[in-house]
Amino acid sequence: MEQYQKILTVIDPTVEDQKALKRAIELAQKTKASITAFLTIFDFSYEMTTMLSSDEREVMRKSVVDDRRQWLTNIVDSLEHQSVAIDCQVVWHNRPFETIIEQVLNEGYDIVIKGTHQHDKLKSVIFTPTDWHILRKCPCPVLLVKDHSWPAQGNIVAAINAGSDEDEHISLNKKITEQAISLAKTIEANVHLVNSYPGTPVNIAIEIPEFNSAEYNDTMLKHHQQAMLEHASKYDIGQSHTHVNEGLPEDVIQALSVELDAELVILGTIGRTGLSAALIGNTAEHVIDRLNCDVLALKPDGYVSPLAK
Q1: Residue ranges in the chain whose pLDDT is less than 50
Q2: pTM of the entire predicted model
Q3: 151: closest CA among 261, 259, 35, 267?
């Protein structure tokens, strides 16, 4: 995690408890990183004040920005962050995800850390459109912070696709595993690798009576187990810390994270955008909203953000 030397932390203007900023400080104190506390604000009422001149509206906007900057400065000052440099930035923009990603592209941040919202009555995490846009389009790793703590000797779950022979998946498996090992050393945690595989397709079992579903399942299991062990052995990860289970990725990853009381799940996202993302969805996104621990989402090497000019 020493590669994360420039941290962009997204500030939530609706709450006083900035858990993303606290997590960023916790990480920066271990890695000697610097932090930018980044707040985007916008109020349509200021833009729609037609009776005022553009200069008067600009004065009003500046007044609001200055007020929020002082609010943010007070929050930063109230937190213990000895030896960690924190720069406060407040930007007026009506599409937060765009200015966040532009900041990453222009300033070369190594990671974006953002808090999540929790529904008061349902006790479940609610992801905003900004969350999904950042996950899909941000070129650097994105750490989504929930309310789970990071205790010493906790567990990190690295979700990989060990059974695939596609170059993109192989490269992403390597990246995810290396990130997990690096972070585990930084925060004194244990690394577990998890891989899911599909069960027998129901339509095949129905349409082809002679199809041996038990043999098919056994073959699939052995294939993924062997691929997992070969991958894990490259990083000296013992078999007891590898997990291969049948089922959908979101089900398998969630079940293991609960079983291990994981503090962090690391996974890859191919960053699909447009209609295909809306229709097909992204495995990472199906997983993320079901976990009660932090999630670190990584892009494959060579990914280019659609906002890059």
Answers
A1: 121-123, 275-281
A2: 0.89
A3: 261
